[in-house]
Write the structure tokens for this entry.
Amino acid sequence: GLGAPAPHGPRAGAGPTAADVNGAAPAGGRAGAVTAPFPGSRPGLTYLSAPGPAAPGAAAALAAAARGVPGPDAGVLRSAEEARTIGLPVIQPASPMFDPGADREDAAGLPGSRGEHLLQAAYGTQDRANRFYRDQVLPRLNAEMVTFVGRMEMAFIGTADARGECDSTFRAGPPGFLHVIDEQRIAYPEYRGNGVLASLGNISENPHVAMLMIDFVEDLIGLHVNGRARIVEDAELRAQVSGLPHEVERGRKPERWVVVHVEEAYVHCRKHIPRMQPVARTRDWGTDDSRRKGGDYFGVRAAADKAAGKSAGKRS
């Protein structure tokens, strides 16, 4: 089916991942530790606190708190006594604080990750961030975004495996190769490639996907789409979705599709986007010739062949 993928992977059900840093701090602008309970906290945990942007000692305190604490609980102190052992004064919170260990829906409805909320608090950017969340971030595609996606000829795709090891890739085609199924779903085709299947392999372990589409030619603007993806075979998707192109370009037929269920969609500002001019080019579609594909542009295989030849020469 094409419903939203079930949550799984490194972020699903994770415990606290970092200590909290916010405006409640001891006098003198030093980093300190705040003990639960307070609004949004989890009982029995102690959170780091700092007075605001670039608080003196905050980074060192975070590093010290994380020292020797493996896995998802790195950066969370287990007790006030542990805070004292690394030289942090224990204080009471001056205001409600965001709990970095809470699930996304517990974070006052804010989009984004626990980590970004943590650093917004650490560097004093919450007001700007909250304005952006309020003014620009949607949990779906609006009509303008749908139109934008429909005329894109390229997209950058980010994925990660179950351990969080990342890959980024590039997908391109004529306008419409990114197929908007509805306001919650985008599908993009997968063709025969080098056989590595790095992105699809990541998605099979961890469905979280980040897409970035940029208009380099006309409006100089970008669109981020973050969501959860599933791999759907071509025949299966065609049985459920009408209007999919059969040949997206030069006779290439999709082997399968990635269907992304949209969780966040928001603008990428034009400030640093360069203007580009499309030019005609000759492409060697369907070739496996490494030279024509540019597959050894960086000389990796040539260097390996050269080294192998030298090694063979020494043995002969």
User: Anything to note?
Assistant: DSSP finds nine helices and ten strands in the chain. Confidence is low (pLDDT under 50) at residues 3-80, 86-107. Residues 206 and 313 are 46 Å apart (CA to CA).
